[in-house]
Amino acid sequence: MCNVLVSVICVLLSLCLYKWYRNYKYLQQFDWLPPKPGWPIIGNSLEFKDLTDVLSTLIKLIPKKEKMILLKIAGVPNLMVADYDFTEFILSNPNILHKSADYKFYRKWLGTGLLIGGGSKWKSRRRIIAPSFNFSILENFLEVFDSNGNIFINKLKKHIDEDKINIDRFITLYTLDVICETAMGVKVNAQINENSQYVQNVQLMCKIGMIRATSIIKKSNLLYPLTPDYYRELRAIKQLHDVTDAVIEERSLTCSTDEDKEDLNEYGLKKKMAFLDLLLNTRVDGQPLSHEDIREEVDTFMFAGHDTTASAISFCVYFLSENPDVQEQAMEEQKAIFGDDINRKSTLNDLQMMKYLECVIKETLRLCPSVPLYGRQLREDVYYKGNLLPKGLDIYIFPYGMHRDTDYYPDPEKFDPTRFENLDGKRPYKFVPFSLGPRNCVGQKFAMLEMKSIVSKLLRNFEILPTIPKHTLHFVSETVLKSTNGVRIRLKTRKW
Fold this sequence. Notes:
Blueprint: H1 2-28, H2 54-61, E1 68-73, E2 76-81, H3 84-91, H4 107-110, H5 119-129, H6 135-138, H7 142-157, E3 165-166, H8 167-184, H9 197-214, H10 228-253, H11 275-281, E4 283-284, E5 287-288, H12 291-304, H13 307-322, H14 324-338, H15 348-353, H16 355-367, E6 374-377, E7 382-384, E8 387-389, E9 394-397, H17 399-402, H18 444-461, E10 462-465, E11 475-478, E12 480-483, E13 488-493
């Protein structure tokens, strides 16, 4: 028995030494990068106490000169980047398309759809989905923006002159109503029924994904089932999938047929078609997409087009409340477009004319990118300026940090929409809230139209005022950028 025990211990020690040696040789390839010393095995994981300090910690850790640093999270090397040249190199490279390993924490929910997938499947899905974001289709969603926007405004009218309105709560329900109607073709009336389980589940999944990315225990597939979050995640995913499955089944029964050809656009698609209808009508090599294929794309669109947009709108409203001169200029633009008819519906042309409001939204996304950190994984060795980046490395682009760098933006903490009025286009990769390159956000036109539509309606109905005393945002990175203490403002009925 003693000999067997000694043999087992020797084997385990040999395996540990072999793993240590492989890791040592792997890390030697990064000697050209500024390292951050860490603890054995766990690396730099203890640098991140909780989700509220991820962003501020990264800003402190990333050197001002190199603008990138190698961190070992749970012992795994991760390259954190806030450098313009490197960001352009990664995002513009047609061969670096795979998402980083941490995206696997969302795979049970989102599958390997457009957000997470890679390779030939991703390219095929991109070709299928891209036409649905053409303006000829997006224009028909304006009615959805407007009708749900009216509910949003009427809800806010009940809170006029309150000291501290958490606008984020109202906007999140608005964007959920919009995305359900445009993505799945169904009304869920989340603004009327405010206790939306769907919203709570989406927010839980965003939080759990980020926790797993920085937790030593929860990052491990072996140890994660020993934690309560594992079972909370399973319940949330089941409820999210149940909603999508039910809608797909119902919608597939009423899906337009080949004989139903009226009112088609130049892509051969019905103009008034939900995103789900597009997928139900899609054929690949003559075969329809499977139920699972459709569900993962609808779930992806529901996630990517709901919480991210809500985050951007909420922070935009906050910055308008804190910058009355900016709000006044945005309002002057609204007057020029709508005249005395403040209640008429926005047309596509109206929204395209809102150039200053677009600058306001872009400046919001500069300071508060909805996704403050996103990653790519190398599937082959790559050389950058003569230095090796080995296969398997996870690289994280850090727009939250890059957007606040004085080398790229003068006085970066100042909210100044005029930065975007006269861009020369020479350094496009310094502004990457939607990413750039081949894996840029396919829904950014949709998002911009939705944001313009609702902020325009808000401006035309209310003066947006700061709270007294001033409300300070406490940022937290839960996949999507949030404020732990809400986004609080005051409202006053606007007099024209």
